[in-house]
Amino acid sequence: MRRRSKIVGKDKSSSASGGFRPDVGGDTDVVIVGAGVAGAALAYTLGKDGRKVQVIERDLREPERIVGELLQPGGYLKLVELGLQDCVSEIDAQRALGYFVYKDGKSTRLAYPLKGLGSDHVSGRCFHNGRFIQRMRQKASTLSNVRLEQGTVTSLINEENGSVKGVEYKNGEDIVTQVYAPLTIVCDGSFSNLRRSLCTPKVEIPSCFVGLILENSALPHANHCHVVLADPSPILFYQISSTEIRCFVDIPGQKVPCISSGEMANYLNTVVAPQIPPQLYNAFVAAVEKGGGNIRSMSNRSMAANPHPTPGAFLLGDAFNMRHPLTGGGMTVALSDVLLLGDLLRPLPNLNDASNHLQSFYTLRKPVASTINILAGALYKVLCASPDQAKKEMREACFDYLSLGGVFTNGPISLISGLNPRPLNVVLHFFAVTVYGVGRLFLPFPSPKRVWLGAQLLSVGE
Fold first, then answer.
1. Contact status, residue 146 vs residue 51, Cβ threshold 8 Å
2. Tell me, what DSSP letter sits at residue 361?
3. For 282-310, b where at least 16 C-beta lie within 10 A, e where not — what string?
4. I need a surface site. Which of 18, 124, 137, 388 has the fewest CB within 10 A?
5. Comparing 414 with 65, which gets the higher pLDDT?
């Protein structure tokens, strides 16, 4: 039965200068707030299942983000399961087959364990995030029962019992509209203004990324992401198009040098550039000299999932759960969550009591989400430089452990890639790195100083 909406704010007669429009979507099954990776993928998934979906996105133009540019192989497999694999076509996406990691003049290759996955097409993908999102939006909009609209959602519509029955939003013409649906899914990104009513957010900012584009350049090792274990923290390189390399310089803490004053350029030239691999040095310096909009910064946010079960509403994507982007696992988690949510909703004839059937979602998502979340946070702490001798030893032990090959390489890289989502394996490998590091200190013989350092290393490993 179609609901009547309330008049909000402005007079009905005003239109060009702003006003009120009656509620839309009385027969809508799902309202999705946000059309990023999670929102667009979910819209297509639910639309394929025959649901009537309305997506409200703040800005439907191609996003210009400097994150979300690496899709791990595990995420690509989820994309295939969702039927969205063609969204990485025609955007000049580059295949990623693993990593090359540099430290103190040494390097090691960490190849994704892709054998036995049934297709030569399975690999990671690097691309411009905005192009990828636009392809997914276009794919969702090909379904007649999916409607994408540009607008800013200002609030959830709550009933007296606390359940959510829709959203209120304002479009580009300043017209306030209410749309009702049995289920509202909020996936409006890391800066969500709606999450506080659906979860207890505890956002941490361990560091910031400074992003640059290296133009007309290619990486020393094709089809591999490059990681430099620099001081004070890692530097990342991805080939995001056939002629462009994305560089991320991690800066610990929440404060970064000012870009407009030239302080940032000076930092990049004097502190970062000397640590760049020689093959990329000239391209990096040229990117810094270009300045302007080519140097951008963003805070790296981390937030554990801590939802408040709310009838009629659900959180997804970065609005729900975030981790440090060092390992590039965010889109893998989001696509895995979309796939799981679609599977849980598919058998339901209607969505009026969908929330009662979604409690298992939080348990079922843990293998993938916990593996990637724990690994991202732990690896960032281990791979950052430190004056503490025990942490230095741990960092060196981690690099050498990954260089051993066999299970010592394949195990951790299968976790990073999202191909082996097992949280216990994360713990086991970090324990193994710690034991490996302590064991090295006792060779050729355990001096008192080395024994004491080994004890400190065990403490760091905990």
1. no
2. H
3. ebbeebbeeeeeebbbbebbbbbbebeeb
4. 388
5. 414
Residues whose CB falls within 8 Å of the CB of residue 387, separated by 6 or more in sequence, listed in order: none
What six digits make up the tokens of 231?
A: 């001081």
Residue in the structure block whose two tokens are 């950052």: 384
Dihedrals φ, ψ of 282, to 5°?
Answer: -65, -40
Residue pair 414/329 in contact by the 8 Å Cβ criterion: no
Cis peptide before 347 (omega within 30 of 0): no
Residue 314 is given by DSSP the state E
pLDDT score, position 12: 34
- Return d(Cα 209, Cα 189) in angstroms, integer: 17
As a whole number of angstroms, the distance between CA 21 and CA 388 comes to 62
CA distance 12 to 226: 57
> What contacts 255, CB < 8 A, 6 or more positions away?
none
**pLDDT tops 90 at residue 305:** yes
pLDDT given for residue 357 in this prediction: 85
Task: Please answer whether residues 222 and 258 qualify as being in contact, where contact means their C-beta atoms are separated by less than 8 angstroms.
Answer: no
| 329-367: pLDDT as tens digits | 999 999 999 999 999 999 999 898 888 888 899 999 999
List, in order, residues 6 or more apart from 198 with CB less than 8 Å away: 186, 307, 308, 310, 313, 314, 315
Report pTM. 0.91
SS3 229: coil
Nearest to 182 by CA among 20, 307, 321, 358: 358
Give the span between the Cα atoms of 313 and 315, in whole angstroms.
Answer: 7
**Can you name the residues that pair with 155 across neighbouring β-strands?**
168
Nearest one of 15, 388, 38, 14 to 185, comparing CA atoms? 38
**Short-list 320, 144, 288, 120, CA closest to 214:** 288
